[in-house]
Amino acid sequence: MTDFGDSFAPPPPQGKDDKELQEFLFVEKQKAQFNAQIHEFNDFCWDKCVEKPGSKLDSKTETCLTNCVDRFIDVSLLITNRFAQLLQKSGGV
Amino acid sequence: MDSLPSGLSNTQKDELMDQVKQQIAVANAQELLTKMTEKCFKKCISKPGTSLDNSEQKCIAMCMDRYMDSWNLVSRTYGVRIQKERNRMS
């Protein structure tokens, strides 16, 4: 999921005709992935943070939501790094 | 990615781009709608009766607004974080 590395690399150069379209599609794909990720975050952070929906999001809920997103990314990075270490130690790829 | 059909005129290219953008926007709205319906049904309808009563309808309306607030907040938070991670890596 959260792929901060490669997904931000520029698209590989292509035939001059297609270049504009390639770039356009690359950007749109990035935006779509970003949006899909937000849907996913909002899905489970809503379950974790929002009790009864009121007339506005109170500050406690807002803090919970921002923390939820940031901590999820922390966990994702932590697990990715540790998993890579485990693979290295076991002599895997 | 497969190579794209070459020799598109500029108008065709613009049309194609517009179509892609529109389809993405529709898909995005559908996803939001599906999620919102599911989440707000869960929050507001504890025991489904013979019709949606007034308080349930009010709850649904409020829930929709809050779900969108939440979506926007999550979007901002995620955007800020991505920016931070990119700066850290470059």
TrEMBL record, chain A:
On subunit structure and binding partners, the annotation says: Heterohexamer.
GO annotations under biological process? Answer: protein transport
Record organism:
Photinus pyralis (Common eastern firefly)
InterPro entries to which the protein is assigned, alphabetical: Tim10-like, Tim10-like_dom_sf
The UniProt function text for this chain reads: Mitochondrial intermembrane chaperone that participates in the import and insertion of some multi-pass transmembrane proteins into the mitochondrial inner membrane. Also required for the transfer of beta-barrel precursors from the TOM complex to the sorting and assembly machinery (SAM complex) of the outer membrane. Acts as a chaperone-like protein that protects the hydrophobic precursors from aggregation and guide them through the mitochondrial intermembrane space.
* Pfam families reported for this sequence: zf-Tim10_DDP
Of the GO CC terms on this record, one is: mitochondrial inner membrane
**Listed name of the protein:** Mitochondrial import inner membrane translocase subunit
Describe the family membership recorded for this protein in Swiss-Prot or TrEMBL: Belongs to the small Tim family.
Q: How does it sit in the membrane?
A: Peripheral membrane protein
| Alphabetical UniProt keywords | Chaperone, Disulfide bond, Membrane, Mitochondrion, Mitochondrion inner membrane, Protein transport, Translocation, Transport
Ranges for domain Tim10-like: 26-85
Q: Record's domain comment?
A: The twin CX3C motif contains 4 conserved Cys residues that form 2 disulfide bonds in the mitochondrial intermembrane space.
Q: Where in the cell is it found?
A: Mitochondrion inner membrane
UniProtKB/TrEMBL annotation, chain B:
Annotated function: Mitochondrial intermembrane chaperone that participates in the import and insertion of some multi-pass transmembrane proteins into the mitochondrial inner membrane. Also required for the transfer of beta-barrel precursors from the TOM complex to the sorting and assembly machinery (SAM complex) of the outer membrane. Acts as a chaperone-like protein that protects the hydrophobic precursors from aggregation and guide them through the mitochondrial intermembrane space.
Q: Which Pfam families match?
A: zf-Tim10_DDP
GO CC: one term? mitochondrial inner membrane
Q: Where in the cell is it found?
A: Mitochondrion inner membrane
Q: Which family does it belong to?
A: Belongs to the small Tim family.
Give the record's keywords alphabetically: Chaperone, Disulfide bond, Membrane, Metal-binding, Mitochondrion, Mitochondrion inner membrane, Protein transport, Translocation, Transport, Zinc
Chief location: mitochondrion
Q: What is the superkingdom listed in this entry's lineage?
A: Eukaryota
Under InterPro entries, the record lists: Tim10-like, Tim10-like_dom_sf
Please give the subunit comment from the record.
Heterohexamer.
Show the domain comment. Answer: The twin CX3C motif contains 4 conserved Cys residues that form 2 disulfide bonds in the mitochondrial intermembrane space.
Q: Which organism is it from?
A: Photinus pyralis (Common eastern firefly)
Q: What is this protein called?
A: Mitochondrial import inner membrane translocase subunit
Q: Which biological processes are named by the entry's GO terms?
A: protein insertion into mitochondrial inner membrane; protein transport
Bilayer topology reads: Peripheral membrane protein
Question: Which intervals hold domain Tim10-like?
Answer: 19-78
Q: Which GO terms describe its molecular function?
A: metal ion binding
